[in-house]
Amino acid sequence: MRRTIAAVLAAACLVSCDQSSVRKTTEKLEAFDVQEPDPAPAPAAAGAQIAYSYTVSYVFDRPTVAQVQGEQLALCRGLGNARCMVVRSTLHAPGIGGGTNAGVAADVAADVAAGAADDVAMLLVDARLVTGFNQRLDALARAGGAHLSERQSTAEDVTRQVIDANAKVRAKQALADRLLTIIRSAKGNVGELVQAERAYATTQEELDAARQEQASLAQRVAMSPVTINYRYDDPSASRGVIANSLRSAGDTLANSLAAMIDVIVAALPWLVLGGGLWLLMRRIARKRGWRRPRWGRKASGDISPPTDG
Q1: Count of other CB atoms within 10 angstroms of residue 189
Q2: Does residue 307 register a pLDDT over 60?
Q3: Sign (positive/negative) of CA torsion 156, 162, 163, 164?
Q4: Longest dimension (CA), the chain
Q5: For the chain, does the N or the C end have fewer beta carbons within 10 angstroms?
Q6: Is the pTM of this model over 0.70?
Q7: How far apart are alpha carbons 108 and 116 in whole angstroms?
Q8: Is 261 left (phi over 0), alpha (psi -120 to 50) or beta?
Q9: Is the pLDDT of residue 201 over 90?
Q10: Residue 59 and residue 48: Cα distance in Å, rounded?
Q11: CA 223 distance to own-chain centroid
Q12: Coiled-coil stretches, from where to where (predicted)?
């Protein structure tokens, strides 16, 4: 089937949202024809595309978190990055394993300062191996004295997204091929070829973005994230809480006494000055024979009538 170059550039116009400029080029290129490639055959119907994710939590009653985490991370690395990848891991207590294992995140000190209590490891595991891999994780945890406290699994159907992404890639690729054919034919004047090259560049950018989306969806289906949480229940934690409370109470009492001393020190000069002024006024009143007012004498219990001079 043969169509005019105008149809090809009109399609590119819809992609790049530049209809006015391409319409002008279309009017100039009506005299040239190109062979439109045959449509690609429809792909075979694929099965459901499911993206799985898993979360597992272990509780330890002895300080073997480092040992167990190190063995589990070594198990993942032993499979190779193509089948298992350590995305992130943290370790706050060295435990029996001795020190921080290789691959532990470098921001452990910041996590401890922020009050983080639990350790975590985030892995990407080949979806075909994840069931057996989780069983081996459980075996390593039990051997280290841990017990399973929680397990979660989620499944997201991304079949429609995969189909849409594949269709978008095919459409952008076909359009890019047609535009490239126009450019290579070198038909038309310089302005027309410039318009075709601009449309091709825009289409190529959108094709790259569609391919990235396609690859991301394929990665989600092929590799399942596995999040491992580690918690160490320290028996001495309760005693530590009581000790912290006592220290907090002592700090509060000390702060209160310090505040009281500050108030006294701040008020002492004014008390001295006020007392001195009161004594001075009292002496002056005695020398001059000033009498207290009647209400003052009643208040002090002196109710005798005043004597004449």
Answers
A1: 10
A2: no
A3: positive
A4: 139
A5: C
A6: no
A7: 9
A8: alpha
A9: yes
A10: 36
A11: 21
A12: 193-220
